[in-house]
Amino acid sequence: MSAERIYRLLLRAYPPAFRAEYGREMVLVFRDQCRDGDVRTLGFWVRVFWDVVRSAPALRAEAARTVEGIMKLAAMLTVLLGAFGLLGAVNEWGAASQHPGTYVLAVVLGVLASLLLLGSGIAILRRMRQVARLALVASLVCVVAARLAFPWMSIFLQLVGFVLPVGLLIALYGPRKSSTWGAASIVLLGLAVPQLCRAQALPLGRWTGSAGSMDQPAFYALTFDVTAVGDSVRIMLHPSTGDDYRLDTIRLSGDTLRFTLQLARALLPGDAPGGAHGARCMLLRQRDASYTGTCTGANGMPSTMRMVPPRVDPGSRHPKGAPAHRGTTPVLRRELLRDAPHGRAGCAPGFRGEWYSQGPQLARK
Amino acid sequence: VSRSLQKQPSPESFLPVPPATFHILLALADGDLHGYAIMQDVAQRSEGAVRLGPGTLYGALKRLLEARLVEESGERADREGADERRRYYRLTPLGLAVARAEARRLDAILRAARRKKLIGERPA
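ok -> structure tokens follow
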């Protein structure tokens, strides 16, 4: 084997990009060294090997730190997350007790988004940047559609679904400094974000539900009117009998819905509200899109509550049972209650038998 | 934004320059050189104390090119009738400024060492 052939083999220790750029020059320099030195001596080869051992690892480490290296790592992560998304969709499907239309659509879109994410990762690894870009944009569109169809997506899925493709798209467009497509993708993201924020709100309309003690969780039927008031949401709780409640300090964070119950009617001086007034509730989103959890009354008594969102008619933006107006105001509800027969309200036990104890007072007013 | 309008880093931000890199800058201070000529220049100037191998040389040149301290000045044969064309390199104005700044830094260290009588007086 000739000295140059050995040196060409040694050059494989260097990163491919470095070899492509400087390999020919290095071989020329090695030829010069062979011409001016004695290639048959051990010292010559010790210097050659030492040079490779000293410089190749540093250049490899530098190459791993470059954007391409980062992109390769990100692509591997994308492939893993895509596969993880597919597994998650299968698990989600198997664990769900019901499969309403929007849920099926969201799962199908999620599977499609995961496949596209997986494909984009492979495309990046194979240096097919244009294919990767298209797959990422398509994946992003699928995730946005899934999010709009089914607003109860977990924070982790949202991060993977939105942030990862956007980050990769920016990275892929980065080298092109003034890329029209890069600018377009940022504009697209800007347009998508308000839609996503809107989708995070609870579905408007007439919700149903139940409440009860820990032993009998669905003892009372409830209805909720979820209405939009400006940028916020107002929720009124209407028990089948008794006083209405207003859901106060509503916090929807991921899958957790927190609120405090406040009597809808005005409290008169000396009026002891009792009932569920002041109860703090924390409900968790279930796989069938309902919210189930517990409320802790002002007296520390626990009780259960379930909220079931309205079904959305295909092709309609308004849920079934949504009120024609923008929600019932406390004043309007009071008017309605004044006219309604409340004879049974005072007798009806609420949460732990106390919920509706103030009903007759309202009816008497 | 054109490259010329980009803010140029100060020469001091590159200090201290690694010894092998400084030797390359010194070699290129005389004019354009190709890779092997740089190696020979360094070996002669250091009286054989510093011997750059091809890996060390081109690794350093790659970093110098990325830092815009050195630029390629074209590809040509190093002598009449030679078959292989070689890439030549030259200092950029920034590279020259960095070489000067490093020389001043080393000179200051040398003067300090002389004041401490760690080394002899400057030879005439």
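The first helix of chain A runs from residue 3 to 10.
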